[in-house]
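Task 17 of the worksheet. Students: predict the tertiary structure of the chain below and write it out as structure tokens. Keep your answer in the requested format; marks are given for formatting as well as content.
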Amino acid sequence: MSAHLHCENVTVSFGGVVACNKISLDVEEGKVVGLIGPNGAGKTTLFNVLSRFQNVDEGEVYLRDKPITGLKAHQIIQLGMARTFQNINLFNEQTTLDNILIGAHRLLGNPFADMLALPSSRRIEAKLRDRAVQLAESLHLQGELDNLVRNLPYGMQKRVELARALAAEPDIILLDEPVAGCNEEETSELKAIIKRVNEEFGITILLVEHDMSMVMTVCDYIHVINFGANLADGTPSDIQTNRDVINAYLGEDH
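Model answer:
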């Protein structure tokens, strides 16, 4: 198995409703991969399974060939997977810089050294701060470091959340509707940033998104699910011309 992230026959039920029915997919290392489907197709449930916010009834999830279904979300971060959320989940009364630094908690050293403010702890803190500033610059947030995030435009808040995920130094990020609620300009900026994160940082990306133009522009490969099951997968051009996909999903808007 060579996939960076792989799930096999994932099944999840809520009462008598099957949200995911034996879904399998691969996320190839170094790629930007999309997960799309109509409302109620099971995307959010599968996304939560992959990032370990949701348990499975059947099936398995592998991160670099290692089974992770029995792990908790905080343990996944330690293995190099980060995620963002559809509804922005920031600390509104903290600054942009503080929010980014919160993402770096997995990289902190000995907690006792932190409490005692030993030199080694101060060096680590300074290094993480420098890294946070660099991330802010990469995501065009350098002028907002001292601003409370509640005062930032929505598109900038989306970038702060992405910067916070990057601060954990992951090698794979799951993006949950990264441009939802953004205007055209914000969407264009975030598309460029996602591509740069993938190409310059070398980070594998799996994203769920309803904006088909964005998906077709940034993704190397796309998985489509419908009624909780695999429907199709392929390159953007494959998906755009797939009759089953057109009927099930793309046909809603075209």
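Marker's comment: The two ends are 37 Å apart (CA to CA). The first strand starts at residue 5 and ends at 14.
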